[in-house]
Amino acid sequence: MKNVLFLCTGNSARSILAEAYLNSATQDRFKAYSAGSRPGGRVNPLALELLAKNRIDTAGLRSKSWDEFAAPGAPQLDFVFTVCDQAAAEPCPYWPGQPMTAHWGVPDPAAVQGSDEERRRAFRHAFSALSTRINLFLSLPMDKLDRLALKRELEDIGRTGIEELQR
Questions:
Q1: What is the pLDDT of residue 27?
Q2: What DSSP assignment string belongs to the chain?
Q3: Can you tell me the distance from the alpha carbon of 95 to that of 69, in angstroms, rounded to the nearest whole number?
Q4: Of 111, 82, 99, 91, whose CA–CA distance to 151 is shortest?
Q5: Half-sphere exposure of residue 128: CA atoms within 13 angstroms, side-chain side
Q6: What is the domain count for the chain?
Q7: What is the dihedral angle through the alpha carbons of 152, 154, 158, 161, rounded to the nearest 10 degrees?
Q8: The CATH number of the domain where 62 resides is what?
Q9: Does the pLDDT of residue 163 top 60, yes or no?
Q10: Given its phi and psi angles, is residue 98 left (phi above 0), alpha (psi -120 to 50 degrees) or beta?
Q11: Catalytic residue positions?
Q12: pTM of the predicted model, to two decimals?
């Protein structure tokens, strides 16, 4: 079982969506976690609503600090993905075990102002981008890729759908 950490600043939306989706998409190969550099302390209700509509378990999801994953006794991480530009620019804690890292930036749906429908649409777009990237990640022939090739593949996944996300 490989451990994956999704990082964002507030750990209330994007990283939560990614954690929940990866855990729902694979039961035996990966265990996903999420955290934030400055967690907001709560999961965005629209993220929980979207996950529930997609029949994805939300039990145990919480906003937490990335410090939990750098502390003694934390799960050893195999992969760390930043899903927001702000977290990607911050100096991350030391992750024991030298996990593979990549940036999979997605615009923050929680920052969208507007009607409830416009805000829900932003969450759907973020979820679509993240689930597409996670599906690509899951399809990688990891046992056939050396570390350098895997790193290139992970970075390429982070560029998938960039044009659509910028609209």
A1: 72
A2: -EEEEEEESS-SSHHHHHHHHHHHH-SSSEEEEEEESS--SS--HHHHHHHHHTT---TT----BGGGGTSTTPPPPSEEEE-SHHHHHSPPPP-TT--EEEE-----GGG--S-HHHHHHHHHHHHHHHHHHHHHHHHS-GGG--HHHHHHHHHHHHHTTHHHHT-
A3: 7
A4: 99
A5: 10
A6: 1
A7: 90
A8: 3.40.50.2300
A9: no
A10: left
A11: 8, 84, 92
A12: 0.91
Q: What is the C-alpha separation between 71 and 80, in angstroms, rounded? A: 15
Name the residue range of residue 29's domain: 2-165
**CA-CA distance, 92 to 161, in Å (whole number)?**
25
Per-residue model confidence (pLDDT) at position 43:
94
* Strands of 2-8's sheet in order across: 30-36, 2-8, 79-82, 100-103
* Residue for token pair 């967690």: 39
